[in-house]
Specification:
This protein is an all-alpha fold and about 90 residues long. The chain has a domain at about 15-65. Helices cover about 45% and strands about 0% of the residues. The chain contains three helices and no strands. The radius of gyration is 27 Å and the shape is elongated.
Length: about 90
């Protein structure tokens, strides 16, 4: 039995100097429609692999620093207290 052949139009590639303007328009459209505050785009120049790794790690470190509180939670913080296991009355320190 022969599989059914689907006629799917294949878009023309938009690479090379002749298509630079079209590629730029597509990328600008992509960034405009998908860059959100929950999932921001951070374009990284990847021509130099080492510099690209440093840039990516810097972006991650900055995001983590922004998300983390500047001070650890206090001892009376309800979340910390509620996560501690309850002390048993019959437990011995021994």
């Amino acid at each position: 039995m022969q599989p059914i052949a689907l006629q799917v139009p294949i878009p023309k590639p938009i690479v090379g100097p002749a298509h630079r303007d079209r590629a730029n328009d597509v990328l600008q459209d992509l960034f405009a429609n998908t860059n959100t505050r929950w999932a921001p785009w951070n374009p990284i120049d990847a021509n130099d692999g080492t510099a690209a790794c440093i840039a990516a790690l810097t972006i991650l470190a900055d995001a983590m620093e922004k998300a983390m509180p500047s001070e650890p939670p206090g001892e009376t913080d309800e979340k910390v207290v509620s996560l501690r296991p309850a002390k048993r009355a019959d437990a011995t320190d021994g």
